[in-house]
Amino acid sequence: MINADRIVPVIKTDLLSLYGTILKVANVSFGVVEASTVEGDFTVTGTGAAGTFLGNQPVKTLDFATGVTSATVYFVAAYDFGGFTVAGAAATTTGTVTPDDATLYKAELSGGTVTVTAVTP
User: Fold this and answer.
1) Tens-of-pLDDT digits for all 121 residues of the chain?
2) How far is Cα 23 from Cα 95, in angstroms, rounded to an integer?
3) Residue 77 burial (10 A CB sphere; 0-12, 13-18, 19+)
4) Handedness of CA 16, 18, 19, 21 (dihedral sign)
């Protein structure tokens, strides 16, 4: 339904699915990485360049497992966001994450460093 300001509200999808649709429209190829816990703990597995992913729920922690040398993860930070690890050890991170359960971020692992940028303003 269109409101008085001629704005069509998003009512049939969740925010992460909407972000996924936007990424697809922008020709970003990605897989979905699923949380291993209800709290939002994620692990990206693979060997070498693991690929590009979208987290399926807000991220509390994100680990790039042993063997992953590069990967990109689009994510929304949970209010209790705890950061990144590489092979279980605290990662060197550049960029700032402000946990708000809404802002889309991109985390890129390269050379053992995780670079984080906000995708949404």
Assistant:
1) 566 777 777 777 888 999 999 999 999 999 999 999 999 999 999 999 999 999 999 999 999 999 999 999 999 999 999 999 999 999 999 999 999 989 999 999 999 999 999 997 6
2) 21
3) buried
4) positive
